[in-house]
Specification:
There is one protein chain. With about 240 residues, this protein is mainly alpha-helical. Helices cover about 70% and strands about 0% of the residues.
Length: about 240
């Protein structure tokens, strides 16, 4: 059989992680190159920067309970994205190793029946990916359009209440800040969805490998080389646990 391409099903996830600076080439280590510079600038400017300006705003709306509640509600979720990025980068080498290990011969399906067996897992993951993406895109669009829909754009209302070290109620600073917030929240949504969906992809791969192993065990009696097949099953199981 030709080698099965496990990466094909989740390629869109990998491409989006590359786009947001979270999938460097190689074993997962960031080296001193253009991509690393891009990752540092984009993540700090669009994730940590956007979060920082909203955290600072808490101190300026502290006396307004309604504004404080709304700010904390949004800011808390964005702080969690920053924490998620940090933990993701910290464990990126392990995540890439787990994904690259799938290309080993021990994890390859051995017949067409096993490929048909794992296809539902791959299709389900694709469905889950788009189920996550569609509402996330809708939320970003609504946040971006909120000042327009609320008819407060003439009051220089921004999509998110945040503090900036300049006056955002004058042009073109208002328009530039508005654009910055929209790009930042779109970037953060992309990071949030694709880091989560990567973990679900790894779990999907484990489920597919379990089905392959079960198929091998079910067909032991039909095999002439039963002892060799048992050894392969044991090795596959050990590799899956490892």
């Amino acid at each position: 059989m030709n080698k099965f391409d496990w990466e094909a099903a989740t390629r869109i996830n990998t491409l989006m992680l590359k786009f947001v600076g979270l999938w460097p080439e190689g074993d997962g280590t960031y080296n001193l190159n253009i991509y690393t510079i891009y990752a540092v600038i984009s993540i700090n400017l669009l994730v940590n920067g956007h979060t920082f300006f909203q955290v600072m705003n808490i101190f300026f709306v502290f006396s307004n309970l309604q504004a404080l509640t709304a700010t904390i509600f949004i800011t808390a979720s964005e702080v969690l994205v920053s924490v998620k990025v940090y933990k993701y980068v910290q464990n990126l080498k392990l995540l890439k190793k787990l994904k690259n290990d799938l290309e080993k011969d021990i994890f390859q399906p051995t017949n067409e029946g096993q490929i048909l067996l794992i296809e539902p897992h791959l299709k389900m993951w694709k469905v889950a990916y788009f189920v996550f993406c569609i509402p996330s895109t809708a939320v970003v669009a609504l946040f971006a359009a909120f000042p327009i829909l609320d008819q407060r754009i003439k009051e220089y209302r921004l999509p998110f209440s945040a503090w900036y070290p300049y006056n955002t109620k004058i042009s073109p600073l208002y328009e530039l800040t508005y654009l910055y917030q929209v790009i930042a929240i779109l970037f953060m949504a992309t990071v949030n969805v694709n880091t989560d969906i990567l973990i679900s992809a790894l779990m999907m791969y484990v489920a597919a490998q379990c089905d392959i192993l079960c198929d091998e065990l079910r067909n032991l009696n039909a095999s002439e080389n039963i002892h060799e097949k048992i050894i392969i099953c044991v090795r596959r199981h050990q590799a899956l646990l490892g």
